[in-house]
Amino acid sequence: MQTVKLILKRLLLLTGLVLTSPLIFVTLLEALLFGRKAERVYGSCKELLALCPTLCGQYLRLAFYWAVCTRISPDACFLFGSMVAHRDTVIRGGGVVGTHSIIGYADIGENVLFGARVSVISGKYQHGRPEERAQDGAVREEYQCIHIGGNSWIGEGALILADVGAGCTVGAGSVVYKEVPDGITVMGNPARKVSLQVTDTAGSAAGDK
Question: In sequence order, what are the beta bridge partners of 83?
Fold first, then answer.
């Protein structure tokens, strides 16, 4: 059964590659002529594909990113409205990019799950440093690769500006401004470590009698 499922997934990926081949061609041509940092054509293609609904859209996005990005696992999943902002991004197997989520320049481990409307920002200074803008109005873009360790879960509406370790949980709506070590749960704006404890209400009640 697993073998049949895998074959079907690969056939869908192959179909996606055929259907998106014109977009893949012009995107690779852009990189060849102007370098990988040139992403005007790439950006237009990713926005177009983000609008494709249903399972068909998922495999169109997967095929395109698998073909043009640095490394996208064929077992990743891109839900409706999701985008990979930069082609140098890495997403490993089992990754699920939630609805309307945007992944910037990032290196993402295995089995990382993103809720809806998550934004992984390419560092804190991708639009320049405040002191430089105040001095001469210039914007000197600095792109930082954000690393997210395997088996982490990023809640809905979270904003990620710093590395997140493996096995972490980032609560919904959190703003991660500082690095999160492995195995930590963070919540809030700015995100802070929290301790989640499950209280056995029934057991406590029994002990009180």
Answer: 102
pLDDT attached to residue 137: 62
Residue holding tokens 């470590």? 193
Please tell me the predicted confidence (pLDDT) of residue 34.
95
Tokens of 125: 């200074």
Longest dimension (CA), the chain: 77
Tokens 């980032």 -> residue: 170
The number of helix segments (H) and strand segments (E) in the chain equals 6, 16
User: What is the pLDDT at residue 65?
Assistant: 98
Look up residue 20 and give its two tokens.
């998106």
Question: Using CA atoms, how far apart are residues 31 and 12, in angstroms rounded to an integer?
Answer: 26
User: Which residue ranges make up each domain of the chain?
Assistant: 2-195
Query: Per 3-state DSSP, what percentage of the chain is helix, strand, and coil (rounded to 5)?
Result: 35, 20, 45
pLDDT per position as a tens digit, 153-182: 999 999 999 999 999 999 999 999 999 999
CATH assignment, 2-195: 2.160.10.10
* Residue ranges of the chain whose pLDDT lies below 50: 198-209
- C-alpha span between 209 and 194 (Å, rounded): 32
